[in-house]
Design a protein that fits this description.
Layout (H helix, E strand, L loop, with lengths): L2 H21 L6 E7 L1 E5 L2 E16 L5 E6 L6 E2 L4 E5 L2 H36 L5 H33 L2 E3 L4 E6 L6 E2 L6 E16 L11 E6 L2 E13 L9 E9 L10 E7 L5 E7 L4 E2 L5 E9 L2 E15 L2 E6 L7 E5 L8 E6 L3 H6 L3
Parallel strand pairs: 1-21
Antiparallel strand pairs: 1-20, 2-15, 3-10, 3-14, 4-6, 4-9, 5-8, 6-7, 8-10, 10-13, 11-12, 11-14, 12-13, 15-19, 16-17, 17-18, 17-20, 18-19, 18-21
Helix pairs in contact: 2-3
Length: 371
């Protein structure tokens, strides 16, 4: 189940629970949904903060100087690889191409004629009607006209290439984020015409403390949350660790790459990253992220449901949270065991010892929580 649908279901469920709770008189069971404390295999993680940047960024420049006659993009446009960006006046280059093509035709004719003369002299030589000098001269002329034809064909290829270089195309798919030229302007070969960003994948640049440098390897799993999209979690992997540290902070750049098929991530966003460290995995107790309540003093708690004189009642349990695994959080400290029941939804207004009435959890929510 996608996060957006899950969040929408939770909002509607909370509204229904609140409405149901208002029906009950004081002391009546409060409707809640429950989740189970489970044991999972987790790896040690390091928490980092970073900033997104484009996986590919290019300032596109024309390969020849000239006058811009057509501009096919504007800032914010999304283009495919190979799409035309601009066109420059190529009339003179086209005329040079026509002239080169004519020279090729002339060279082909000369070469063909030299072959004819050679073949005639070789035939006459068999009847002793042509001298050795005339024959060898004809053979050499064939070689010279062949070389001249090759040179003219190369000149034609060059002229055609120059025509093509009057057009600028996108080297990869992405978004145009800057445009520095307009129709009618004269541009040089080293002038940046547009700036293009690839957005199908993004990178996160984070600072890795030196104590963890040796324990982070390329390909390690990384869980990412963005301040701009707090309700969603993304999964990427470590692309590289850069062996050029900051002498003051004793940290090293770490590059993390993740897919961005919807294009909702953009360079410059702040990110919070949890990266798996190399080493043996360990067993850990986990609870759903939504079961953990953050209090105003910075502490956290979950509401455990247990039988008390045959009645299901909720009691707060202080906990300390560790690593994250999808939508579940590791319990580092807390008086809980695997199999214990905790309140997933409906824990906002509970009182210690309050009786509760567990409600069914929809299948899609159970799947999203890995149950």
């Amino acid at each position: 189940m996608c996060i957006r649908n899950r969040s929408a279901w939770q909002a509607s469920t909370l509204a229904l629970l609140c409405c149901a709770a208002s029906v009950f008189a004081d002391g009546s069971p409060s409707p809640v949904t429950l989740a189970e404390v489970t044991t999972e295999t987790l790896r040690e993680q390091v928490a980092l903060s970073g900033t997104t940047e484009a996986s590919r960024r290019a300032a596109l420049s024309p390969r020849v100087e000239g006058l811009v006659t057509e501009l096919f993009v504007d800032e914010g446009d999304v283009v495919e690889q190979g799409a035309r960006v601009l066109q420059m006046d190529a009339r003179l280059a086209e005329l040079d191409t026509e002239a080169a093509a004519a020279r090729v035709q002339e060279a082909e004719a000369r070469h063909g004629d030299s072959i004819r003369i050679r073949d005639e002299l070789l035939s006459l030589k068999k009847g002793r009607h042509a001298s050795e000098t005339e024959t060898q001269s004809a053979i050499a002329n064939v070689e010279m006209t062949a070389a001249a034809l090759s040179a003219e064909r190369a000149a034609l290829s060059r002229a055609r290439e120059l025509v093509q270089r009057h057009a600028l195309a996108a080297p990869f798919a992405g978004m145009v984020v800057a445009k520095q030229v307009e129709v009618g302007e004269w541009v040089q070969r080293d002038d940046a015409a547009v700036e293009l960003l690839a957005l199908n994948r993004v990178r996160i640049r984070a600072n890795l403390p030196q104590r963890d440098y040796a324990r982070v390897v390329a390909g390690a799993k990384a869980q990412v949350r963005f301040d701009a999209l707090p309700e969603r979690e993304f999964v990427g992997e470590v692309l590289a660790r850069i062996a050029s540290g900051d002498e003051r902070s004793r940290s090293f750049p770490l590059l993390i790459e993740l897919p961005n098929p919807d294009g909702i991530l953009a360079p410059g966003m702040s990110a919070r990253v949890s990266v798996e460290l190399a080493g043996e995995a360990s067993e850990a107790l986990t609870v759903p992220r939504d079961a953990v309540i953050a209090k105003s003093d910075g502490s956290r708690e979950v509401w455990q449901v247990r039988l008390d004189d045959g009645v299901q009642k909720a009691y707060p349990v202080p906990v300390e949270i560790g690593r994250a695994s999808g939508d579940r959080l590791e319990l580092v400290r807390g008086d809980l065991e695997a199999g214990d029941q905790v309140v997933l939804l409906g824990n906002e207004r509970l009182r210690p010892g309050q009786s509760v009435s567990p409600q069914d959890v929809p299948v899609d929510l159970r799947v999203s929580n890995g149950e």
